[in-house]
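Subject: sequence -> structure tokens, single chain

Hey, anyone have a minute? Need the predicted structure for the following. Not urgent.
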Amino acid sequence: MHTIVPQKLRIFLVEDTIDLREEIVFGLNALGLEVIGFGDAPGLYRALAIAKCDIVVIDVGLPGDVTVAWASSHYGTEAGALANGQLARDFDNGLDPAFSWWLVSQSKNGTGSGTANPSAASFFVKGGNSTSIVYTAAQWSRFAGVTGATSVSGSTATVTPTADATLVATFNAATTGDVGLPSTVPASWAAGYYGTEADALANGSLAQDYMLAQIPTNSYTPVLVVKSLTVSGTSVSVVVNLSGVTLPITGINGTLKLQGSTDLTTWIDVGTAEISNAAFDGSGDSATINFTDLSASKFYKAVIAP
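Reply:
Had a minute. Here:
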């Protein structure tokens, strides 16, 4: 007489939630089944390469959940697919696993900020191929360079990776010259009031606003002019008049230049003085600035410069 012992059903279970996986495995094993749990799809594929099972239970939407149909369309043998340690990465990123791909990551730092095209922080490039990345600086910043690229031309970096590559782009704060502002206006000052460089450039009174410490985004009609000039021997007194603002004010950035000439044709600077806000203490709108020990010029004129 022969006794037939029924063979246990072998079940492979894939579930990435640890508590749920252990609970299901415990419960099904208690019912007399042989259940082995896996936390991800690659673990299942490795097990299938060395052992068979009767039933596979798979959670949907697993990280690295490579479908058999997808892998078989790229590899003639299961062993060939299993030999690719990056199979899940290739599947998740839509890459052709039969080719060699390299990860290129980007990081941006420096004074300014920037955006890149492609805008992804990381992407894959087929080994030996070239990919160009165009960096565009944000407002009030300028692209300074990038390290890790095969070549750089202007703000375009080209990478031809033979291994994982990291490109680090740097950005500097824009200067007055970069933006095209009046030479006396610091770009950092204008950036504090305007979101875009174009808005700052549209203000034709920007230099005057900076000189008189006015908020350039507001409407002002300030005037700082030479009211009178008095010559006494080798000394000259210049009265400067300020109007159109509320006194007292702070932070005047103007310079008074006294120029001399002997023939009214050629003028040279014979004295300079900073126009300080302290000269306008709230008691009046005029300030007197004295120049002494001057050379013997026949004629004098005063010029206010930002």
